[in-house]
Amino acid sequence: MRRRTVALGVALGLLALFPLAGSDFYTELVSKVMILAIFALSLDLLVGYTGLVSFGHAAFYGIGAYALGLLAPKYDPANLWLTLAAAVACAGLAALIVGVFVVRARGIYFIMVTLAFAQMFYFVFHDTKFGGGSDGISMNFKPVAAIGSFIPFNLSDANHVYYFVFAALVTVFLFLRTLSRSSFGRALQGIRSNEERMRSLGFPVYRYKLASFTLAGALAGLAGYLSAMQFGFVNPELLSWHQSGNVLLMLILGGLGSLYGAVVGAFAFVALEELFSSVTTHWQLLLGATIILLVIFLPGGLASVASRFRRLLIGAPSE
Amino acid sequence: MSDAILTTHGLSRSFGGLMAASSVSIELHRGKLHALLGPNGAGKSTLINLLSGELRASAGEIRYKGDDITGLSPDRRSRIGIGRSYQKTNIFPAFTAFENCRLAAQSREPRTLRVFEDALRFEGVCTAARRALEAVGLDNRSDSIAPALSHGEQRQLEIALALATAPDVLLLDEPLAGMGAEEAMRMVELLRGLAPRHAILLVEHDMDAVFAVANVITVMVNGQVLESGEPAQIRASPMVRAAYLGEDGALAGYEQS
Question: What local confidence, expressed as pLDDT, does residue A159 receive?
Fold first, then answer.
């Protein structure tokens, strides 16, 4: 446990100092990865803690992003705090509405029905003029972090974006860690472990699942908003099933149900993507093969490497 | 009697053409241990599932403390005070014995939506969990992860989960199944200790145990109640002997052993 805290501290320190060392290119890349890490964390709440494998989580990521695209005035910068709150609220509301229908389904049916809902949202943005169709929306201005007349930081600066995203990642991580230890979080893990028994012990399982789905959707919306804020651009691809698949892969790569895994997975996924695409144009083949090998030989994900290694050294039996 | 806490009237459940429970009327009283006997397929587990809400009744009604609860969901029934255990061990394999019971006790905690508070800080819940473990004799195993417990210990944990929810009615589906002699004896003692403050419905194949603890026995055959009465009456009943125990009287054999 203590080792983990040390590892966490080192990782935080490295992330905090990173913009001082890297070029703008890498600062922006790591910002992007941290946004994906928030997205993966939000999915971990569903998959890793509640046991709900969603294959449509990108819908809420996309809705958070589109909220900024649609709310931002054409000739003025949007207010960061207002649009951020609106984006999280929109994504959470969408997840609540979708959740009412989907959390009754289980297993493979849940996967299919979340995919179906996500595709519906995708085509709403893709095939109607509502969000600029398949071209999406370009924003002319970055949101302004104004509190009254006080502007604490400037989102046109890559370093400021980096630290804002970093702060969001740490906040979401700590929030989910606290949540996972609370009565609510432990009940979710009980549902993942044995749903029937939770019900016969008196837990209103449906309501717990719906709350988890809504919260996960809202946090995905936060990630989507940050992505739109960073790139100044939204299009329907943000909601596509590829995006839902990618975030699931990040989670599987890093390891489910630990929160660390989600963050590690996001970094590993983008690193592998960068590495393989510099070698060949068929990089997805290599990425696929890597993930298959990883699932076979390291079912706990990358986050389990340290504990496996330690077990190997001490010689204690695994599991 | 006026102190009946859970009653069924004409309770039936059919699966296709099969009547798994057919017009069953029983009463559970606080302070009484009511045992349910019958050969395999007699409808004992069906009746428990009907009472706990996991099966919907095809006909008939269930009343709890006077209220009709026939349509209530399993979680609502648990919250109003009907606890159950399962024939096939049904625990949380991901957690320690303590966390299994803590979670069960937490279901009685109204402040579960405080997402910023560590669940271990709710002292009342933790105490209830420790008491439940102590009651079944698992207090020295509380930090073991559930799959690491022996089969008998998992059976004890199964009962502890039900106890941790502090129910008024306990529906126990073969609690002694798979327990060693010593564990079984301890469980019989536990059942005897629970009986005065609870209404218990016990499905059990261990005749020694049943006749040692039961105040009332109901014998079911083919989904129907064959006879219900005090142990002595059931033991003497020619109908029960003929239908269930066989002419030679397997029961008589148990008496002697």
Answer: 94
Position B161 pLDDT exceeds 90: yes
Cβ–Cβ under 8 Å, residues B115 and A185: yes
Task: At B138, list the tokens.
Answer: 């698992």
CATH number of the domain at B4-256, out of 3.40.50.1220, 3.40.50.300, 3.30.390.10, 2.30.30.100? 3.40.50.300
Residue in chain A nearest B79 by alpha carbon = A202
CB B187 within 8 A of CB B159: yes
The model's pLDDT over A254-287, given as tens digits with 9 standing for 90+, comes to 999 999 999 999 999 999 999 999 988 888 899 8
Q: Residue count of chain A, please give it.
A: 319
Task: Look at the alpha carbons of B224, B225, B227, B230 in this order and tell me if their dihedral is positive or negative.
Answer: positive
> Under an 8 A CB cutoff, do A204 and B75 touch?
yes
3 state DSSP class of B106: helix
Residue B248 carries which DSSP code?
A: T
* Placement of tokens 């009547």 in the chain: B19
Give whole-number Cα distances, A215 to A84, A185, A220, in Å: 15, 12, 9
Chain A hits for B109, CB-CB cut-off 8 Å, are 183
Cβ(B188)–Cβ(B209) below 8 Å: yes
Give the separation between CA B62 and CA A179, rounded to whole angstroms. 39
Judging contacts by C-beta atoms under 8 Å, the chain B residues touching residue A204 are: 75
Asked if B81 contacts B135 with a C-beta cutoff of 8 angstroms, the reply is no
Over residues A150-160, the mean pLDDT reads 92
> Residue ranges of the domains in chain B?
4-256
Residue B249 in this model has a pLDDT that exceeds 50: no
Tell me the pLDDT band of B183, cut-offs 50, 70 and 90.
confident
- Judge whether B105 and B132 are in contact, CB under 8 Å: yes
Rounded distance between C-alpha atoms, residue A244 and residue A36, angstroms: 11
CB contacts under 8 A, B 102-121 vs A, are 102-104, 106-109, 111-120
pLDDT tens-digit series, residues A174-230: 999 999 999 999 999 999 999 999 999 999 999 999 999 999 999 999 999 999 999
In chain A, which residue ranges form alpha helices assigned H by DSSP? Answer: 2-21, 24-44, 58-71, 80-102, 108-127, 158-181, 183-193, 195-200, 205-231, 241-254, 260-279, 283-297, 305-314
Tell me how far apart the alpha carbons of residues A85 and A199 are, in angstroms, rounded to a whole number.
34
Specify the range with the lowest mean pLDDT, choosing from A173-177, B38-42, B49-53, B108-112.
B108-112
The answer to which of A75-84, A237-246, B208-217, B244-253 has the lowest mean pLDDT is: B244-253
